[in-house]
């Protein structure tokens, strides 16, 4: 493992520096003993994106045949952003197993410390919510850290063609009017790279799709709303409207807390 696992290029998810007092508070609330190696990396940086993006998996998942995604870790927070202390909330929200501590994830899949069989040095598991699948990735967090690596993403076939495609407004509108979340994702990917002349169109499209009758499309719109927000593309008024829409939709309300925790509507 490299000297520091934390990415220097992205501060998103990085919380206030960790204190010994907050570690004790967290362990008491969670009723577990956190792995020393996990605590040690959080003392370097309290959560955020890491330099790796994957961990091997011996069991095929809906993500890939040989690996699962891991590009960030939650920290330990005591303010609005609670990091791993949000585990109980997400366990209830997503119907996850009890007695796990979520250390990474975005809703449909999670990386967790598995305390179901022990209170110290737990295995690390991958939880696929949609496929109701749980895969053990490593016997402990030390082994898990050693397995992290950078998986090169190779775009082939249709996706590679869409990455190079120049979209017209008519084509973008057609994509956003279809019931195909993959085509919508292709269109949003293009707009993420070419936002300058399309900011109002992006905002209008996001809010329109957040009202779509199909849950998967509303989820896609919520995910891309976060990406556009991260890039500073959305206006403050638009972000507030999006958060309000998310909170009014029980099926995707969790995106508001996960992606926009500091925006209270």
From TrEMBL:
InterPro entries per record: Knr4/Smi1-like_dom (IPR018958), Knr4/Smi1-like_sf (IPR037883)
Domain Knr4/Smi1-like residues, every copy: 17-147
UniProt cross-references to SMART domains, sorted A to Z: SMI1_KNR4
Q: One Pfam family from the UniProt entry?
A: SMI1_KNR4
Q: What is this protein called?
A: Knr4/Smi1-like domain-containing protein
Organism expressing this protein natively: Alteribacter lacisalsi
């Amino acid at each position: 493992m490299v000297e520091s696992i934390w990415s220097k290029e992205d501060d998103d998810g990085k919380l206030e520096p960790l204190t010994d007092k907050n570690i004790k508070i967290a362990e008491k609330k969670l009723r577990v003993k956190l792995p020393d190696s996990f605590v040690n990396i959080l003392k370097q940086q309290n959560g955020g994106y890491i330099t790796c993006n994957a961990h091997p998996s011996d069991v095929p998942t809906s993500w890939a045949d040989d690996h699962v995604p891991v590009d960030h870790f939650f920290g330990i927070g005591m303010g609005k952003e609670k990091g791993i202390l949000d585990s109980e909330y997400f366990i209830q929200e997503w119907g996850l197993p009890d007695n796990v501590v979520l250390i990474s994830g975005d809703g449909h899949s999670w990386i967790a410390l598995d305390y179901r069989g022990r209170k110290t040095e737990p295995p690390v598991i991958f939880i696929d919510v949609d496929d109701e699948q749980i895969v053990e990735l490593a016997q402990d967090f030390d082994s898990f850290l050693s397995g992290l690596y950078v998986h090169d993403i190779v775009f082939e076939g249709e996706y590679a063609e869409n990455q190079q495609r120049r979209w017209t407004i008519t084509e973008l509108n057609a994509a956003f009017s279809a019931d195909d979340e993959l085509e919508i994702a292709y269109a949003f990917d293009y707009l993420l790279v070419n936002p300058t002349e399309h900011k109002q169109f992006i905002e209008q499209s996001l809010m329109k799709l957040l009202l779509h009758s199909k849950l998967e499309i509303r989820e896609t719109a919520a995910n891309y709303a976060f990406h556009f927000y991260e890039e500073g593309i959305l206006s403050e008024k638009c972000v507030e409207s999006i958060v309000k829409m998310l909170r009014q939709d029980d099926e995707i309300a969790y995106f508001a807390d996960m992606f926009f925790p500091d925006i209270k509507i």
